[in-house]
Amino acid sequence: MSTALATSxxxxxxxxxxxxxxxxxxxxxxxxxxxxxxxxxxGVTVERKAGLLLTPAGRSVNLIDLPGTYSLRGRSPDEExxxxxxxxxxxxxxxxxxxxCVADATNLRLALRLVLELKRTGRPVxxxxxxxxxxxxxxxxxxxxxxxxxxxxPVVTAVAxxxxxxxxxLARMDxxxxxxxxxxxxxxxxxxGAADLRAAQREADRIIAxxxxxxxxxxxxxxxxxxVLLHPIAGLAILLALLFVMFQAVFSWAxxxxxxxxxxxxxxxxxxxxxxxxxxxxxxxxxGVISGVGSVIVFLPQILILFLFILLLEDFGYMARAAxxxxxxxxxxxxxxxAFIPLLxxxxxxxxxxxxxxxxxxxxxxxxxxxxxxxxxxxARIPVYTLIISAFIPARHVWGFVNLQGIVMFGLYAAGIASxxxxxxxxxxxxxxxxxxxxxxLELPDYKLPRIRSVVMGLYQRAMMFxxxxxxxxxxxxxxxxxxxxxxxxxAGATDPAINYSLAAIIGRALEPILAPVGFNWQINVALIPGxxxxxVAVAALGTVYAxxxxxxxxxxxxxxxxxxxxxATALAVLAWYIFAPQCASTLAVIKRETGSWKWMAVxxxxxxxxxxxxxxxxxxxxxxxxxG
Amino acid sequence: MSESHLPRNGHTSLPLGxxxxxxxxxxxxxxxxxxxxxxxxxxxxxxxxxxxxVEGAHVEILHEGAFAxxxxxxxxxxxxxxxxxxxxxxxxxxxxxxx
Lengths: 629, 99
Known about the structure:
The complex is a heterodimer. Chain A is an alpha/beta fold. Chain A has 27 helices and 12 strands. In chain A, strand 5 (98-104), helix 4 (109-119) and strand 6 (125-130) form a beta-alpha-beta unit. In chain A, helix 6 (144-151) packs antiparallel against helix 8 and helix 16 runs antiparallel to helix 18. In chain B, strand 3 and strand 4 (70-76) form a beta hairpin. Chain B has helices spanning 41-50, 85-88, and strands at residues 14-15, 24-30, 58-67, 70-76, 79-83, 91-95. By secondary structure, chain B is mainly beta. Chain B has a 6-stranded antiparallel sheet with strand order 1-6-2-3-4-5. Chain B is globular, with a radius of gyration of 13 Å. Chain B is built from 2 helices and 6 strands, in the order ββαβββαβ. At the A-B interface, helix 4, helix 8, helix 9, helix 13 and strand 12 of A face helix 1, strand 3, strand 4 and strand 5 of B. Strand 12 (441-443) of chain A pairs antiparallel with strand 5 (79-83) of chain B, so a sheet runs across the interface.
């Protein structure tokens, strides 16, 4: 077998296994560099990360980075993937020739228990002591030969974050492959019970006692930082300050870049508009293709800024602390402690927010967060809110100092938050009644300085994932919306705006009987369709249907037109509609992408539009009853 | 169960879920009495074991949350684990110096 391997041209298949926080992903990045492919395992939403590396002897190795786990019991879809790949049960994966079990050299207890469990699978195992430099600096003395002898597996050291930190590991791959890949043993693995786990942990503790010397003065940096960062009051204050900076950054730092991208694509659209003859092709290129691509790229600055913060905090080790601090507050609404960053970012835009739910390991917690994220008042609602508020709500002061318009705006934000908490509460207690949120148990890793390289790599991967996968869906939806707003063409000599002859108008009129009870006229219905592209587009679309030239800049005129044509009850109903309505194709596309299913996209759409209808119905009728009809 | 699960030297062991911040001691037993978070007691026990809560391990409560002093951060041997007091009720420990 070993000679067959040595001469066969087929690459080896190695798998990285390890506990969470073992630095497994950093090691994977160091070993494979840019030769990585991120995809999904068939049928599940678990991310499959694989890459290619060359051993010093010139052998190519397919390396797969398996989801982190404490054991092979398979408690979640991610962990089931790890188990099935390790055991060779997954038809789409090659059985790994060698399992590289990655361990944080400063914290070996749980990793050694995992090694003992992996050995039972009969697959060749090698233990990689990652962050070995850190262990040395802290005075932790690890006798690698002793460790290897006790465990019965080869042990190598590595420093994933340093140049050449993986040299020893690479060198040993060739060596080990020749001797150890030879004879996979018998698989005696079965899901460990409590007695097995106890016995294995005792054995691991015994081995540590013989092979690892702990320093007399333990690391105090993490303890000193935690004394402040996990302090019940100071810790929460720091977290809030951090969130404030983050929210500001996503909201305001991104704005100039987004404006730049927007005006760049607008200018490109105008250039194409002038270069092409009037007609359908011109409109398709300008309003379908260019603004479609633009509507994808415009989200990139927010996504990159948000993920820069998330990756830095995650690598630093703060994310788990933040979850610790927020667990109780979020938990009362049925949300996981880690859900607060995605939800907070959703105030800027639900798209980076939904992508940020990846920090939540548990699938059900993550789904709840994704479902409620679009209820947070995103920045695209602001133009719609301000237009209607300034047209209908008098700028008068109540109780001497409070601006009435400000109160309405605040009320809209509060309604968004309250409904998000309410929906997650309902989801937890009524939808997933029989599957409660699993207990909160989380390792708080030692603090580590984030490495620029791994942060940049993480940013690049997020950006590509967004552009490639969400981008294609967003783009195709933009084209569909353009089609609805442009076909059929207005007849020759038509006097009304072109959109009034389009499919959007036909749909808008068809919706009239359904939406009349909530106080919407057909012009509003028509504007809702291009408004699916992005909420703020509805402002320009209202201008178009009321035949006002000048697009977004003409907001004041549009406001006047609305004030003449709508009743106050209708205006309030539109506001209520926008709190809930799924008026954003991009958000729906990202939900589809992140949940891996059309079902959850449909669920989100259905529940939001139902809430929107109920809310605007109630608001309209209460307002009419109070004489605002 | 075995001898080691019994409180030592007649001192009653304390559920970690009731222990104050700053508590130091040794784990006497992991005994999950009720289901929690929709998981059966055996699964909670396995998860605690997987995070290193085994009999004989040294524990110290380092931090606690602002609301209802929950959750808690527990130093166990060389690692720190965050968990809720509800699940920590299953970890029975004897305080250092009383054993």
